[in-house]
Q: What sequence folds into this?
């Protein structure tokens, strides 16, 4: 059958209507006046301390896999943005409201590197870079368990598919990702959860995110088996 040309619309746009697509609005760039230059990221655990709005600028892209531990001691909204450039492209972003303590993966799985860290807060904050080896470990043998209250990155090295039971009885939101050569989402719920999940082989770590009671924290536990 011969191909036919697509039929043009029968109704022309009304007079004065916009006939060209709108340009996508560019993401707001970070304020250069807030820059605090950091020449290198030390090999050992390194903590940045500040208050309110600030931008940390490294002189090169940070590509090492690591865990970032964030705290915020304020009463209003906060955000921590890890940026590839000065505002156009996010590597990672963590945000919420009120006081917060939590650990998150950086440069692990499929996340890209970063060169800037932009804080927008109303209180004191800390950003501490750690090696994954400093995180708590959940062993893969049946019956092993770990529990917590905050968002956390946990060492969990699998060679084969491994079943786990996750309990977050008071969570308003719970997200669990398995991190290896990529990132696999295992769980995404906006309600309490009690169930079993299968962790894929070649996983190196689990990233647990929880929120409950109006804050970025809620009791949770993970048991192997």
A:
């Amino acid at each position: 059958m011969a191909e036919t040309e697509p039929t043009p619309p029968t109704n022309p746009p009304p007079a004065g209507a916009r006939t060209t697509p709108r340009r996508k609005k560019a993401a707001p760039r970070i304020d250069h006046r807030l820059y605090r230059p950091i020449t290198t990221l030390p090999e050992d655990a390194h903590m940045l301390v500040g208050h309110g709005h600030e931008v940390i600028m490294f002189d090169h892209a940070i590509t090492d896999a690591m865990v970032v531990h964030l705290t915020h001691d304020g009463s209003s909204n906060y955000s921590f943005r890890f940026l590839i450039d000065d505002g156009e492209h996010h590597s990672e972003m963590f945000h919420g409201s009120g006081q917060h303590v939590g650990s998150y993966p950086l440069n692990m799985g499929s996340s890209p590197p970063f060169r800037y860290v932009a804080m927008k807060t109303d209180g004191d904050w800390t950003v501490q870079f750690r090696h994954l080896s400093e995180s708590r470990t959940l062993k893969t043998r049946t019956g092993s368990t770990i529990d917590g209250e905050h968002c956390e990155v946990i060492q969990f090295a699998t060679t084969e598919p491994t079943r786990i039971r996750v309990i977050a009885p008071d969570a308003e939101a719970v997200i669990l990702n398995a991190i290896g050569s990529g990132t696999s989402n295992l769980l995404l719920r906006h309600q309490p959860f009690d169930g079993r999940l299968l962790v894929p082989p070649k996983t190196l770590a689990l990233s647990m995110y929880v929120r409950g009671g109006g804050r970025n924290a809620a009791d949770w536990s993970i048991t192997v088996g």
